[in-house]
Amino acid sequence: MKILLAGAGALGLGLAGSLIIGGAEVHLFGRGIGKQPTENNGIKIRGRFGKFNIAPGQFQILDYNSEQIETSYDLIIVATKAYDVANCLENLQRRLKSEHQIGGVLLVQNGWGIAHEIRLQLNESIPVYSASVITGFEKFGPRGIEVTAHADDIKIGCLFEPRRLEVEAIV
What we know:
By secondary structure, this protein is of the alpha/beta class. It is built from 4 helices and 11 strands, in the order βαβαββββαβαββββ.
């Protein structure tokens, strides 16, 4: 599965690392002070599930202000703060050649309310999913993630369409 993950904070990097370990091809869409150290040194995960080092060559980082994105993605995961989701997706839509490059969008924020706004922003053919994550991710340093708590598998659902996305629990 080819995934574009927007939001390289604690949750975003934790999900990215877990997906890479699980065999997904992950491209991070990020900006800010953590971009360069992560790009140069990889992702370090420690905590409840052990220690993992994701080497820089195992993922790609696309700059938030980069030019056009050529690749198509099975899924775009948006792990930004809720107030930045609409802006992030608008930025992505400008960079993609076509909305046909998006297989679906998964929103991973506190609460499900933002999904309604995003449904209106995207083409109706693009499914919008929301996730419930009951796992604690804490950032240490610019590239390190500590899994501090884990109460349940990630749950994914869709509020709008009678669609289902086959997703295995990320552990």
